């Protein structure tokens, strides 16, 4: 990977400050990388090259005056194609969507733009973010940056691929059941689902209060910087949760003395032994850093998989989506979306209410769990990525290690923790509601002790092409 494309955000900013590098140079390098790699992996589905270069030139002028406008001035950022970006259409991976360009940014995107970010393109998603692989009727199949025969995960697979291959150092994604953390795990990047309501979702947000927006990055420090911008309270704004002024503060304070619960696998989940071993080694490193680690069975999750609470709410949500699509166009929907919508349409009010009651009970139980622990660590996913195309039947249920965090609104982050079988896997950090900063601190401590994680781009274009040739 080009040295510029492998830089952390603070390194880019330092180079801008010392006039060793220009935002225009960086934006051009990112666009060149998209042209080189995107045809192989299909991570970016829309570009605004003219707008991005114009914004880069404005950023360059600000840096030349010594007057950057924000924490991300001159940093290229992509946005998952479920989120509105002014000047680009929001297609949701759907043939039923409109191709007209958006006139306004989503609230989170507006915060990025005000910070000086260069919003250059949209990343691929499964249709309406419906599943944990990234393919859609509109944009086709997105492939893993480590092996094109495999999925990068979903539904934020395009964002994971873009970050992993240097097609921009940061991406804004969404997570309704693991859609940030699963592709981060399978693609070897860092992804965080913040506490619910930490980042504004706007009027187009998921009315089931399952999905939220969060950062994807190559390092924890970059994710913390992006979250600082996304979560910063505007003047006069009210927030349901207390907002720290800067998520970058304290990430190097370490984990010594923290009470950390370690759950190798909740009841009913079989974790691939090689993944379990990678996670166990990572937890050992956390313990060596001074954390008080206790292995636990995580009793509040007993029965979660069998309850169907996530599937019930998720399918009702998609039934509502389908009702908004004109009847004549519904045949254009992904068959998986149609199946979800049909299942949701059959759910009665009592069943839906029971799912919401079960959700509340789980939230109460997990709140009590964190009376005894500061953090919880688990594998991010129990197995490696499936081959493309398609999604195996055993992966069509709610992701067992991630979706319950959406039910409870808890913050969670996935950090690469090994290459079992030559492919990335992830360690998931979970905390009580509002503990986003503590999660980032612990994740940074682990990341620092682990050392640099290989970048998918280091494999080179030939390696990615060769892997794809074996499909």
From TrEMBL:
One family name in Pfam for this protein: Amidase
Residues in Amidase domain copies: 26-440
PROSITE patterns named in the record: AMIDASES (PS00571)
GO MF assignments: catalytic activity
Domain of life: Bacteria
UniProt-listed InterPro entries: Amidase, Amidase_CS, Amidase_dom, AS_sf
Coiled coil: none
Family membership noted in the UniProt record: Belongs to the amidase family.
Listed name of the protein: Amidase
